[in-house]
Design brief:
This protein has one domain: UbiA prenyltransferase (Tetracycline Repressor, domain 2). The protein is 71% helix and 0% strand.
Length: 304
């Protein structure tokens, strides 16, 4: 049993969650519904694409559908990840108390919960145009492969970037007419953003990952983690600038990126790579970074 001072993020039970009976609480924790940061990070690239296409106001309903889809599919991805990684999770302090790893939730129940969340995702899918539906369905293969990447490559964060940025492609397919160039470059920038913030996240587990034989960009970079994160963020900003330029080929719109550039710089300069709590706080702050990028895309898209 974990003592209070040893509680790690994946075993926190606060507020309303702590008052719920064990089974529904475990289902909520299994899908990470109690920690919406992942849903926000999955949602933002899709919202950026809609905003940069100039459709944020006209397609406010699309933003809501993308938000619901992000919650459902992030939850489904977490359940699937925990099913696949249950043996590894048992050997890592931060994840040992997860419902499947600790066997509070059976595999049969976990698969049923996964199916229910996917059905919610299906409802969202049916609201989209055929092209956007095809793009969304194409994400299933990389999503299914992601949990195995930490066993194969030192850069599973790059694969997560491909997966977690996919809503940007869906949003662009649904909201934009004509050229895909700006949407694809916006997506590429999101991939590097994800690599950066998930490397920060991986710093929490670097010692346990080494013991469990789990690969990560944090382990691969070692003492150069801060530089690697800064480089990823810099590439993301350059690509986002290129996407904005394609929508409005003027210097003035690029000013919209200044707030998020300052925020990402703050993350890097205040990051303590050997402090798990500091890394978690910097990781979670990317919810606000996503909002700043949304505002940039909103301003540029509305004035294009």
């Amino acid at each position: 049993m974990l003592m209070a001072e040893n509680i790690v993020p994946d075993s926190e039970q606060r507020g309303l969650l702590a008052r719920l009976p064990g089974f529904p609480r475990d289902l909520i924790q299994l899908a990470r519904l109690d920690r919406p940061i992942g849903s926000w990070l999955l949602f933002w690239p899709g919202a950026w694409a809609v905003a940069l296409a100039g459709e944020a106001a006209a397609r406010w309903d699309l933003l809501l559908w993308l938000a619901l889809g992000s919650i459902a599919m992030r939850g489904a991805g977490c359940v699937y990840n925990d099913i696949v990684d249950r043996d590894i999770d048992q050997r890592i302090a931060r994840t040992a108390a997860r419902p499947v790893a600790s066997r509070r939730i059976s595999l049969r129940v976990a698969w049923a919960w996964l199916l229910l969340l996917c059905l919610i995702g299906l409802v969202v899918l049916l609201q989209l145009k055929p092209m956007a539906q095809i793009v969304a369905l194409a994400s299933l293969a990389p999503v299914a492969a992601y949990p195995f990447m930490k066993r194969i490559t030192w850069w599973p964060q790059a694969w997560l970037g491909i997966v977690f940025s996919w809503a940007g492609l869906v949003g662009w397919a649904e909201a934009a007419d004509g050229s895909w160039h700006a949407g694809l470059i916006l997506y590429a920038g999101a991939i590097f953003w994800v690599i950066g913030y998930d490397t920060i996240y991986a710093l929490q587990d670097i010692e346990d990952d080494a013991l469990a034989g789990v690969k990560s960009s944090a382990r691969a970079l070692g003492g150069k983690a801060r530089f690697g994160i800064a480089l990823c963020y810099a590439i993301a900003l350059i690509l986002w600038g290129a996407a904005i330029w394609m929508v409005r080929p003027q210097m003035l719109p690029l000013i919209a990126l200044i707030p998020i550039a300052i925020h990402l710089s703050y993350q890097v300069t205040t990051l303590r790579t050997n402090d798990g709590a500091n890394a978690l706080a910097r990781f979670r702050s990317n919810r606000f970074a996503g909002f700043l990028m949304f505002l940039a895309c909103l301003v540029v898209g509305a004035s294009a």
